[in-house]
Specification:
Shape: elongated
Strand order of the largest sheet: 6-5-4-3-8-9-7
Number of helices: 4
Order of helices and strands: HEEHEEEEHEEEH
Radius of gyration: 35 Å
Largest sheet: 7 strands, mixed
Structural class: alpha+beta
Distance between the termini: 86 Å
CATH architecture of the largest domain: 2-Layer Sandwich
Oligomer: single chain
Length: about 200
């Protein structure tokens, strides 16, 4: 063992050679150029990376086809018939922030939205959604699984507006309360279309 180490130490200092420990059967000056060792190692590494890449691709393809993706954007069996929305500005420290009551009937393709203020300086107004907005809203709601949404969302801040949405299908009624207007999809998209303040 000791002879092998002594034989290797000078060879380590050579820039273009790789040392192997000397044994009783091998000559002490047996050396292999580093380039051939690196080339052989590179080929092994390249082959191994191809194998790992193939396994990764196979795993991804089989896992995607084996199970359906669970998502909140699955098509409902029951279409949304009607929604009622209430945006309450109670507690908000701005007299210029409106409260809005809206009703959208998808069967009749109508909507009525009433905007009003706690401050009597501002006048109440009524507006309707355009047919394009009704279509966008219907599309968003049709692709939402309401069973997976929470019944209530809150934020840690105070003096925030609160929205309450009641969604009617032919068989069920869903009521969602959102304090702070930061609930998950599709609530922000619905607010963007319906609440015009």
């Amino acid at each position: 063992m000791c002879i092998g180490w002594l034989t290797c130490i000078p060879a380590v200092l050579l820039p273009h050679s790789l040392c192997r420990c000397a044994t009783a059967n091998a000559p002490a000056n047996r050396q292999m150029p580093i380039a051939s060792v690196v080339r052989g190692h590179y080929k092994k590494k390249k082959t191994m990376s191809k194998i790992l890449y193939g396994i990764l691709v196979f795993t991804i393809l089989t896992s995607c086809s084996a199970r359906p993706i669970k998502n909140k954007l699955t098509s409902n069996l029951e279409p949304v018939v009607k929604i009622e929305l209430t945006l309450s500005a109670f507690g908000v420290e701005s007299d210029d922030f409106p409260s809005i009551d809206a009703e959208v009937d998808f069967q009749k393709k109508t909507s009525k939205c009433r905007k009003w203020y706690y401050n009597p300086i501002h006048k109440d107004s009524v507006y309707s959604l355009s047919q394009n907005e009704l279509k966008q809203l219907s599309e968003i709601l049709r692709n939402t699984n309401f069973d997976e949404l929470k019944k209530e969302y809150t934020v840690g801040k105070t003096d925030q507006p609160t929205s309450t949405i009641t969604v009617y299908t032919k068989k069920k009624k869903y009521k969602i309360k959102d304090y702070g207007l930061e609930g998950e999809y599709p609530l922000a998209e619905v607010y963007h279309i319906v609440y015009k303040y």
